[in-house]
TrEMBL record, chain A:
CDD domains: ACT_AHAS
Keyword Amino-acid biosynthesis listed: yes
NCBIfam families: acolac_sm (TIGR00119), PRK11895.1 (NF008864)
Species, as recorded: Sulfurovum indicum
One record GO biological process: L-valine biosynthetic process
Gene name per UniProt: ilvN
Name of this protein: Acetolactate synthase small subunit
From TrEMBL, chain B:
InterPro entries in UniProt: Acetolactate_synth_lsu (IPR012846), AHAS_TPP (IPR039368), DHS-like_NAD/FAD-binding_dom (IPR029035), THDP-binding (IPR029061), Thiamin_PyroP_enz_cen_dom (IPR012000), Thiamin_PyroP_enz_TPP-bd_dom (IPR012001), TPP-bd_CS (IPR000399), TPP_enz (IPR045229)
Species name: Sulfurovum indicum
Catalysed reactions listed for this entry: 2 pyruvate + H(+) = (2S)-2-acetolactate + CO2
Residue ranges of every copy of the Thiamine pyrophosphate enzyme central domain listed in the record: 193-327
The protein's name: Acetolactate synthase
Keyword NAD tagged: no
UniProt xrefs under Pfam families: TPP_enzyme_C (PF02775), TPP_enzyme_M (PF00205), TPP_enzyme_N (PF02776)
Superkingdom of source: Bacteria
Length: 159, 569
C-alpha cells in the first residue's frame, strides 16, 4: 500500500440553509480532530442552500472520513472533494501612506488586484488570485511594511 | 385543526403510535404537561430523574424496536438528559427527546434555566432542532420521528421554546417527509453482493461477525438462515448477543476484550470476515494491525462512514442488513457446507481447550454462577438489562440469550446507571415478561431513586446486585495493571440494601448462599414488586478471558483451570 501523507485539500459542502448548519459542520471538524485551514460560506443565489468551501489537510483516509461524516449530517446535500478545480482567494492589505504607492500598485496589479482605498494615513490594496499566488503576494508585500493583512479564505468550483 | 403547540406535541406522539412516554416536568415544558394531563392517548411515567427518563425510553426502544420518547424541561432538566442521549447515540437507538426551552424572546439572554440545548447535544444526537415558529412545529415533529427510526437510527432532540407551546395555530401533521439532503441507502449494491458471494464460495475459513446492526435491522432470522445454509461459524459482539440463539451449534460466542478463546482465535485465523451490522469497535478488535490479519473483509453497514473507518475492507456493501441478506442468501445456493468442515473442527477443538468456564465454589457465591442460575430459572422468558462493569461482562458471557432484544445494555458509551431505568422501560413495553436488571453495587446507586418510580407505577423490575463491595471492573484493572493499588474502588461501606428498597416501596433480599438465591428469586417473581436482591459474591473474581487494552485478540489472559477461591490468583 502506498504511504499516505497529509496533503492540502479543498472541499465544497452544499447545505440546506437552516439555522446552525455552519455550526454543525465546524463542530464536526472540531469534535473529530480534523483541521480547518480556511472556511468560506455564502448562500447559493436563487436557492435555499448555501455553499461552504473548506480548505483542510489530511491523508486519503482522513479525507474519506471527513467526506463521509459530512455526508451524515442531515442538512448536508452534497460534498465535493475537488480534484479539477478553479480556486480563488482574496486578501486585503493595509500599508502606511508613506510607502511607495506606485510600487505597491504595480505589485498588486501583477496579482490581479490594485489599490482600492487611500486614506489620510493608510492605503488598502486588494488581490484576488489562486491561494498560492496570494501567498506570494503577501510575501512580496512584506517589504512595504504592511500593518494589517486579512485573507478571505478559499472559494472553489469544479472545472 | 386549530390547536396549541403543546397539543400538537401530544397529537404527534399519538399519531406515531407511542404508548408510553417517560419524563419530568418544569417551567419551560409546563404547557405540554398540562396537555398530557388532559389527554388519554398515551401514558406518562414520571421518573425521578431526567437521565432515568431517557434511559427508560431507551430501554423501551431496545425492547420493542419502536421509537422511545422522553420529555424534559429546559436548563437542568435538559442537561440531566444528556447522558441518556449520548448512550442512545452510541448504540444507534431510535429515540425522540422533547425539551422545553425559554421563550423565543429570552433566548440568548442567559435567562432563567436557559441553556443551549441544541449546541450541547450536537455531538450526541443524530440530529436536533430548535423550533423557531409554531408553523414549523408539525413538520419538525414528523421529521424527528422519521429521522430517529430511518437509516442508521439514533436519538433526535426537539427543543421547543415555551411561548410556542401556548401559541395556537393550524395542525396539519404531514403524512410523509421530504428532506432532500437525507437519503439513506437501504439496498446494497448488487454487483458488490455478487462479489462477496464469490468470496464466500472461495473461502476456506469464513467467519460471520454479527453486530448490533442486525438487531436494529431485525435481520436475525436471515442471519440464522445464512449460517444454517452455509454452516459458517459465528461470533457475536456484545450488542448482538441473542441473535443466533444460545443453543445454536454454529455460535462460538462473544468476541473481543472479554470474548472467549474460540471466538477470538477464529477472528485471528479466519480468511474471510463477513461483518454484518458491526462497526469494528476497539473493544472488539484489540490491536488493529493484528485483527483478522489473514482475512479479506466483507463489510455490510447502513452507515457508509462506518465502512473502512478502522480496517481496510475488500467488499464494502452499504445497505440495510435485511435487504442485503435477502439478496445474498439465494445467491449462495451452490455453496457446499462441507467446504468449511475442517475449519469448524479446528474451532471446536479451541472451544474444548478453553471453554467459557469458571471455577465454582461451595463457600462463596461466584458471580458467574448467579448468571448461569438465572439462565436456568428464567432463561428464555426473561428480558435482561445490565449496568456497566464486571457483572455486565459475566452476563454477556454466561447468560443463555436466545433471541435478540432479550439483552439490553449500554455498549458504546458504557453508562453506569443505565440498567435499572432501562429495565423499567422494557417492563412497560412487556409487562408479562420477567425483567431482570443485572447490576453491581456501584452502578445501581447511580439511578436508585427509580425505586420510587417503579414502586409507584407498579413496575416490578428485579435488580440482581452482584455485590463484590468493589467498583469491580476498575478494581480488576488495578489488580492487573496497577499492582493492586485499589485507589477509590473499595466499596466496603454499603447501604442497607433491603431497608433501602423497602424505604422506597419495594422489597429487598440479602442473599449469601445458593439456596437463598433460588428462594429469593422465586419469591421476587411471586411478589411482583420492584426489588433489590443483594447477592454477596466473591470479592476478587476477575472477568476472563481478557485481552489487555490495545493487545492482539489472540493474546488472552485465560481463566485458571483449577483454582482455589480467594484473592491470590
Ligand atoms: C457513569 C460512569 N462512571 C464511571 C464509569 C467507569 N466504570 C466502568 S465499570 C466501573 C465499576 C462498576 O462497578 P459495579 O457497578 O459495582 O460493577 P462490577 O464491576 O463490580 O460488577 C466503573 C466505575 C462508567 N462506566 N460509567
Amino acid at each position: 500500500m502506498a504511504k499516505s501523507t497529509d496533503e492540502r485539500r479543498v472541499i465544497s459542502v452544499v447545505v440546506m440553509n437552516e439555522s446552525s448548519v455552519l455550526a454543525r459542520v465546524t463542530a464536526l471538524f472540531a469534535g473529530r480532530g480534523y483541521n480547518i485551514e480556511s472556511l468560506t460560506v455564502a448562500p447559493i443565489p436563487e436557492s435555499d442552500m448555501s455553499h461552504i468551501t473548506i480548505e483542510t489537510k489530511g491523508n486519503a483516509k482522513v479525507m474519506e472520513q471527513i467526506t463521509k461524516q459530512l455526508h451524515k449530517l442531515i442538512p448536508v446535500y452534497k460534498v465535493i472533494e475537488h480534484e479539477e478545480m478553479v480556486e480563488k482567494e482574496m486578501v486585503l492589505i493595509k500599508f502606511p501612506i508613506a510607502e511607495n504607492l506606485s510600487d505597491i500598485a504595480a505589485l498588486a496589479a501583477a496579482y490581479n488586484g490594485g489599490i482600492v482605498n487611500v486614506g489620510k494615513e493608510m492605503v488598502v490594496a486588494q488581490v484576488a488570485d489562486e491561494p498560492k499566488r496570494v501567498k506570494h503576494f503577501i510575501e512580496a508585500a512584506q517589504r512595504y511594511n504592511p500593518c494589517e493583512i486579512v485573507r478571505g479564505g478559499v472559494v472553489a468550483i469544479e472545472r | 385543526m386549530q390547536m396549541s403547540g403543546a397539543q400538537m406535541v401530544c397529537e404527534a406522539i399519538i399519531a406515531e403510535g407511542i404508548k408510553t412516554v417517560f419524563g419530568y416536568p418544569g417551567g419551560a415544558i409546563m404547557h405540554v404537561y398540562d396537555e398530557i394531563y388532559k389527554q388519554d392517548g398515551f401514558e406518562h411515567i414520571l421518573t425521578r430523574h431526567e437521565q432515568a427518563a431517557v434511559h427508560a425510553a431507551d430501554g423501551y426502544a431496545r425492547a420493542t424496536g419502536e421509537v422511545g420518547v422522553a420529555m424534559v424541561t429546559s436548563g437542568p432538566g435538559f442537561t440531566n438528559a444528556v447522558t441518556g442521549l449520548a448512550t442512545a447515540y452510541m448504540d444507534s437507538i431510535p429515540m425522540v427527546v422533547i425539551s422545553g426551552q425559554v421563550p423565543l424572546s429570552l433566548i440568548g439572554t442567559d435567562g432563567f434555566q436557559e441553556i443551549d440545548a441544541v449546541g450541547i447535544s450536537r455531538p450526541c444526537t443524530k440530529h436536533n432542532f430548535l423550533v423557531r415558529s409554531l408553523e414549523e412545529l408539525p413538520r419538525i415533529l414528523k421529521e424527528a420521528f422519521y429521522l430517529a427510526r430511518s437509516g442508521r437510527p439514533g436519538p433526535i432532540l426537539v427543543d421547543i421554546p415555551k411561548d410556542i407551546t401556548v401559541e395556537v395555530g393550524e395542525f396539519d401533521y404531514p403524512e410523509s417527509v421530504n428532506i432532500p439532503s437525507y437519503k439513506p441507502t437501504y439496498k446494497g449494491n448488487a454487483r458488490q453482493i455478487e462479489k462477496a458471494v464469490d468470496a464466500i464460495k472461495k473461502a476456506k475459513k469464513p467467519l460471520l461477525y454479527i453486530g448490533g446492526g442486525v438487531v436494529l435491522s431485525n435481520a436475525y432470522e436471515l442471519v440464522r438462515q445464512l449460517a444454517e445454509k452455509t454452516q459458517i461459524p459465528v461470533v457475536e459482539t456484545l450488542m448482538a448477543r441473542g441473535v443466533m440463539g444460545a443453543k445454536n451449534p454454529l455460535l462460538l460466542g462473544m468476541l473481543g476484550m472479554h470474548g472467549n478463546y474460540a471466538s477470538n482465535m477464529a477472528m485471528s485465523e479466519t480468511d474471510l470476515v463477513i461483518s454484518l451490522g458491526a462497526r469494528f469497535d476497539d473493544r472488539v478488535t484489540g490491536k488493529l494491525s493484528e485483527f483478522a490479519k489473514y482475512a479479506d473483509i466483507i463489510h455490510v453497514d447502513i452507515d457508509p462512514a462506518n465502512i473502512a473507518k478502522l480496517v481496510d475492507v475488500d467488499y464494502p456493501i452499504v445497505g440495510d442488513v435485511t435487504q442485503v441478506l435477502e439478496k445474498m442468501i439465494p445467491l449462495l445456493d451452490g455453496v457446499n457446507p462441507d467446504r468449511y468442515q475442517a475449519w469448524r473442527e479446528i474451532l471446536k477443538r479451541y472451544d474444548e481447550l478453553h471453554p467459557q468456564a469458571y471455577v465454582d465454589s461451595d463457600e462463596v457465591i461466584k458471580p458467574q454462577w448467579v448468571i448461569e442460575r438465572l439462565g436456568e430459572l428464567v432463561g428464555e422468558d426473561a428480558i435482561i438489562t445490565s449496568d456497566v462493569g464486571q457483572h455486565q461482562m459475566w452476563a454477556a458471557q454466561h447468560y443463555p440469550f436466545d433471541r435478540p432484544r432479550q439483552w439490553i445494555n449500554s455498549g458504546g458509551l458504557g453508562t453506569m446507571g443505565f440498567g435499572f431505568p432501562a429495565a423499567i422501560g422494557a417492563k412497560k413495553a412487556y409487562p408479562e415478561k420477567t425483567v431482570i436488571n443485572i447490576t453491581g453495587d456501584g452502578s445501581i446507586l447511580m439511578n436508585m431513586q427509580e425505586l420510587v418510580t417503579a414502586a409507584e407505577y407498579k413496575i416490578p423490575v428485579i435488580n440482581v446486585i452482584l455485590n463484590n463491595h468493589f467498583l469491580g471492573m476498575v478494581r480488576q484493572w488495578q489488580t492487573f495493571f496497577y499492582e493492586k493499588r485499589y485507589s477509590e474502588t473499595d466499596l466496603t461501606f454499603q447501604p442497607n440494601w433491603k431497608a433501602l428498597a423497602e424505604a422506597c416501596g419495594g422489597i429487598g433480599y440479602d442473599v449469601t448462599t445458593k439456596e437463598e438465591f433460588d428462594a429469593a428469586l422465586e419469591d421476587a417473581i411471586k411478589q411482583d414488586k420492584v426489588c433489590f436482591m443483594n447477592v454477596a459474591v466473591n470479592r476478587f473474581e476477575n472477568v476472563l478471558p481478557m485481552v489487555p487494552a490495545g493487545g492482539a485478540l489472540f493474546n488472552m489472559m485465560l481463566p485458571p483451570k483449577i483454582e482455589k477461591d480467594g484473592e491470590e490468583k
